[in-house]
Design brief:
The complex is a heterodimer of chains A (368) and B (347). Chain A is built from twelve helices and twelve strands. Chain A has 368 residues and is of the alpha/beta class. In chain A, the strands form two sheets. In chain A, strands 6-7-8-3-9-10-12-11 form an eight-stranded mixed sheet, sandwiched between helices. Chain A has a four-stranded antiparallel sheet with strand order 2-1-4-5. In chain B, 31% of the residues lie in helices and 20% in strands. The chains are: A alpha/beta (368), B alpha/beta (347).
Chain lengths: 368, 347
């Protein structure tokens, strides 16, 4: 295995607000290999965007990275001064954001804004910049790029603006592209086109992509590896097949069953994860998912589980899963191997129920 | 805060009588000297009592405008909206107000749709006060009953909207919509502003309430997976017109309009094995401007199987019954499934 291009170790980012210390990201560790596509999924407030902002040194007051290392090509980004960081941002690491309209300057031509990044970093020879701008727009499939470079952002549709943002991100041939909800503001047909574009660009340019999203479907199509975050922590990590076919954390398991699928039978009732994510100022003791977890056991209330390996390439932070992992090593008789039902241990019976029954029982047992 | 109602009863079959009939509804917005925007251009459909009909389409297709036309929040340019036998487009003033009691709305943005200076109790009671239906102790009791129905603590009635999360606010909006015991509820993107785990709570609640109160829903959303899940039938809209109406059960396996098929191919499925086999239907260009819609079939400028020049550019295809029981407006609906591939051929 080659050295990771990005290696985040034990990252914690807090926001010091008047109401208290918001512990937005706590002890997050992950790595990205060169050319890899990694998805970070979670709901609003889970810390996925703050993690990305921390990597790029974009966290602003009252926020502060309070702990950790962010190793990029062997250098700790947290130890660099502003000038050194600026030389990496937009050159070696690029970022695209959710809302392409507010990320562009409305009074400057699109072409000029793409060129700006190349002029700033002197990686591309000045003489080539004009031609490369048109090439980039061609690469992101903007039609008639010779004319379009002279347009202003308001003359572009939402999907085209996001294409232009991607062109900007790719202009300096970065090693890593961080895309924060790049398709959330777009219609589904446009979203599908942008995702296909990102997939192709990853293959053509070899740039690693970290895709941050709340949409599980988006991750399934683009990413090879998936990180699941909840309440500021990584709760599970694995290959895309592992995460979708045998999730080992109850949150991942519940999340997958709470979204309606276009290809599923309509008859199945959705699993609703009851309650709300915890307050990041006043976190619950033990596992942060315990107030909403359908599988919780005594230990979850007092001790926070550490993220540990549960299968080759797969990590999870869950006491129930850990017990099962230990059980499979010969200590117990729990034999659930059906895809997706890996955490299907019922809290009371401790036996494995068929999927439909688990869903129904969960819905009943949490009603108060 | 939890789903308090868990039903095991199956949903009763929708009745054969249409409760709501929308007949050739048209809405043109004037665009100054530029002519008019045909936001809704001749839409006709029925909803049976107890049925859920989904309305899906991309931004600007006219789905929200159609919802507002049906509830008479904006007047129709032409056409009829027949609610329980009465054409409400011909009513005004007190008569409209009384007839419209039967029809309520739930909105997308749970932050903007609740008055921040009213207590939750007053928000939910407002329709009751408005129609002088109830007052005093009885009103308070009804508000508490409604809060309980939507899974909130009944003693929250003195709190203000800012004290609630998005999902809880959406429950308050639902309680307000239920206050007058309506027959029809128009849900305009009720879950799209909510987080994934909260969406399921609200979808399940809407399904439970439908069983409990025999409600009829028009469910408007851009997310086809959500729409298909909750609806009995799904209508797909493009540039102000309905292009396909299909039973939810077979929408995934059978499509009669190229746009439906393209839309379906765009929806990401949380399953890497399916995703790796999927092929995106490439739509050429962008959605045309509704100020200057294409001639003939509105979709012909982007359709992968359109005959241009030819019938698709010249003749508006009627919305008609196809062999599989769907309604679709396409001259070549028999070729949609054979000519437009949405799956990679097995290697």
């Amino acid at each position: 295995m080659t050295d990771p291009i990005l290696d985040v170790r034990n990252l914690s980012t807090h926001f010091f607000t008047d109401d208290g210390e918001v512990k937005a990201v706590r002890g997050v560790s992950f790595h990205v290999q060169p050319g890899e596509t990694v998805g970070i999924v979670g709901e609003s407030g889970c810390g996925k965007s703050v993690t990305a902002m921390s990597v790029l040194g974009l966290v602003q007051r009252p926020g502060k990275v309070v702990n950790g290392e962010i190793m990029f090509k062997g250098r700790d980004l947290l130890k660099l001064n502003k000038e050194e960081l600026r030389n990496i941002r937009g050159r070696d690491i690029a970022m695209i954001f959710q809302d392409p309209l507010s990320s562009m300057n409305p009074v400057l031509r699109v072409g000029y804004q793409i060129e700006e990044a190349m002029h700033a970093h002197n990686k591309i020879a000045d003489a080539q910049i004009d031609a490369r701008t048109i090439d980039l727009l061609k690469q992101v499939r903007v039609s008639d790029p010779e004319r379009r470079v002279k347009d202003y952002p308001h003359q572009f549709s939402g999907g085209m603006r996001q294409r232009a943002m991607i062109a900007m991100g790719l202009s300096n041939k970065p090693d890593l592209l961080i895309a924060d909800e790049p398709t959330t503001a777009l219609d589904v047909t446009v979203q599908a086109q942008i995702l296909e574009l990102l997939r192709d660009l990853n293959e053509q340019t070899g740039a690693a992509i970290v895709l941050i999203t709340h949409n599980l479907g988006v991750v399934a199509g683009l990413c090879k590896r998936v990180i699941v975050m909840y309440a500021g922590e990584i709760v599970e990590e694995g290959t895309v097949e592992q995460i979708f076919e045998s999730p080992q954390h109850p949150y991942t398991w519940s999340l997958l069953r709470s979204v309606p699928r276009i290809d599923a039978s309509r008859r199945a009732r959705l699993l609703s994860i009851e309650g709300l994510p915890p307050d990041l100022i006043d976190l619950p003791a033990g596992c942060k998912f315990n107030p909403r977890c359908p599988f919780r056991i005594e230990r979850c209330f007092s001790e926070a589980p550490l993220i540990e390996q549960v299968a080759p390439m797969q990590l999870a932070a869950c006491w129930v899963t850990m017990e099962k992992a230990y059980a499979e090593m010969g200590a117990g008789d729990i034999t659930d191997t059906s895809p997706g039902a890996a955490s299907g241990v019922h809290p009371k019976g401790r036996q494995v129920l068929p999927e439909a029954e688990v869903t129904a029982t969960v819905a009943e047992s949490v009603g108060d | 805060m939890t789903d308090t109602i868990v039903h095991v009863l199956p949903k009763p079959a929708p009745s054969a009588e249409p409760l709501l009939r929308v007949v050739n509804v048209v809405k043109h917005f004037s665009a100054g000297g530029n002519g008019s925007v045909k936001a809704v251009d001749g839409v006709t459909f029925d909803i049976m009592a107890g049925e859920t009909v989904g309305l899906v389409g991309e931004s600007g297709c006219g789905k929200s405008t159609l919802g507002r036309l049906i509830s008479q929040l904006i007047p129709v340019t032409s056409g009829e909206v027949i609610l329980d036998g009465v054409d409400i487009t011909k009513l005004s003033g007190e008569k409209l107000r009384q007839q419209r009691k039967q029809l309520q709305m739930i909105f997308q943005d749970p932050y903007a749709s609740l008055d921040p200076r009213m207590t939750v109790g007053d928000i939910i009671a407002e329709p009751l006060v408005n129609f002088k239906m109830i007052s005093g102790k009885a009103k308070d009791a009804r508000v508490q009953e409604l809060l309980r129905t939507v899974g909130l603590n009944p003693y929250f009635n003195n709190r203000y909207p800012h004290e609630f999360s998005g999902g809880q606010r959406q429950r308050i909006g639902i309680a307000r919509a239920l206050a007058l015991n309506p027959k029809v509820i128009i849900c305009d993107e009720p879950v799209s502003a909510l987080d994934v785990s909260i969406q399921a709570q609200i979808i399940n609640l809407l399904e439970d309430l439908q069983r409990e109160f025999n409600l009829t829903y028009l469910f408007i959303a851009h997310d086809l997976s959500v729409v298909r899940h909750i609806s009995d039938r799904v209508m797909v809209m493009y540039l102000g017109r309905i292009c396909e109406v299909a039973p939810s059960e077979d929408l995934y396996v059978s499509q009669d309009h190229p746009y439906t098929r393209a839309l379906l191919s765009s929806i990401p499925v949380p399953d890497p094995r399916i995703e790796s086999k999927r092929r995106l239907v490439e739509l050429s260009g962008e959605i045309p401007s509704p100020l200057n819609p294409p001639s003939g079939c509105l979709f012909h400028t982007r359709c992968p199987i359109a005959q241009v020049p030819g019938v698709c550019a010249d003749v508006v295809p009627p919305l008609e019954m196809k062999p599989d029981g769907h309604l679709a407006s396409c001259h070549f609906s028999d070729q949609v499934r054979t000519k437009i591939k949405i799956e990679e051929a097995p290697a």
